[in-house]
Amino acid sequence: MADDATHTPLPTPVRRAAVAFVFVTVLIDILAFGIIIPVLPHLIEAMTGGGVSNAAWWVGIFGTVFAAVQFVSSPIQGALSDRFGRRPVILLSNLGLGLDFVLMALAPSLWLLFVGRIISGMTAASFTTANAYIADVTPPEKRAGAFGLLGGAFGIGFIIGPALGGFLGTIDLRLPFWVAAGLALTNFLYGFFILPESLPPERRAARFEPHSAHPLGALRLLRCSPTVFGLAIVMFLFYLAHYVLQTTFVLYADYRYHWGAQAVGFVLALVGACDGSVQAFLTGKLTGRFGERPVLVAGMVFGTAAFAVMGLASVGWVFLVGIPLMSLWGLAGPPIQSIMTRCVPPDQQGRLQGAITSMGSFAGIFGPYLFAQIFAFSIAPERQVHLPGIAFLLAAGLVAVGAVVAARATRHVAPAAPPP
Known about the structure:
CATH architecture: Up-down Bundle
CATH topology: Growth Hormone, Chain: A
Number of helices: 17
Largest sheet: none
CATH class: Mainly Alpha
Radius of gyration: 20 Å
Strand content: under 5%
Structural class: mainly alpha
Number of domains: 1
Low-confidence stretches: 1-11
Distance between the termini: 18 Å
Shape: globular
Order of helices and strands: HHHHHHHHHHHHHHHHH
Helix content: over 70%
Number of strands: 0
């Protein structure tokens, strides 16, 4: 196992400032993405005119193509950040996203909206590069907490973004896209003038290697050790299960609980509040006290329970009970990231994060279509029995398998030791 704890860490004040900069960068990006979540399925439904079942089919197609594009793009972006630094990749990502949201706001037809989602998949690089950024500036024993703090940015973004998007969507379905464009372009300006580079030239890859930048080449990096390979499988199952929320939640909540765009936005804000609190305030403390492995496995168990509750909930208030459990599922992510970063050297952190993102995107090639089709099948008018929660129960099963794999893959992992 490679240990990058031997490099000279940044001074603590500089490290804290750098983490704060990337925290704000991710926060603004998540705000931009969160704003369009409550309205994109409804905009697709309005453009297709075929009802909820037909809209679910198209939402699945949109999600699958978005993930396929990310699957190809993420390793390239990670390798580029290893060679040229994290800052330029983040800046180009933010600029591309801003211009793409403008395109989607103006899209007069479904196919042009579809093109916009393809461009989003190509330019959504800041999340991958932000994780590499955190690995650059944080010593190994602090990474789980730092990744949790970054997860807190996701949570805060989902507190404000979907609620705001739901409100704006009641005014006009396209208004959230304009606001998202403004946020992404503001983020570009913020990064251009303030965000420092985290990877100095002497720690960068000597050259850009195309053979390792394509998806299959990047995924080979995940076979560098049994631990990394096992955790890569866990990440795949983690991401795959999560697509049930991204793909079906809006239409599921409308169908089963009669929640409109604004109600969905508020529910997603509650999800963000719970998740952000857990990520920002509990992850670092719990991993410091109990260790990464117990927190990882416990998080996966909580995720299994959350999806089971959501799938079995026949009324809205029972579904809401699953939200705190869902937030505790988030405890699993930072320890996975932390353990994996200790297995590769500094000049491969971007490739590692690109490979991890590719795992999520690979799951996204199947997940949106899988869950959308299961949901559409379960509520089709010709069915005598409607079982709309089956998709969530499938997600519960996937996370349960992930908990078992995580426990086995990390059984020999030693705790991160502070640098001498």
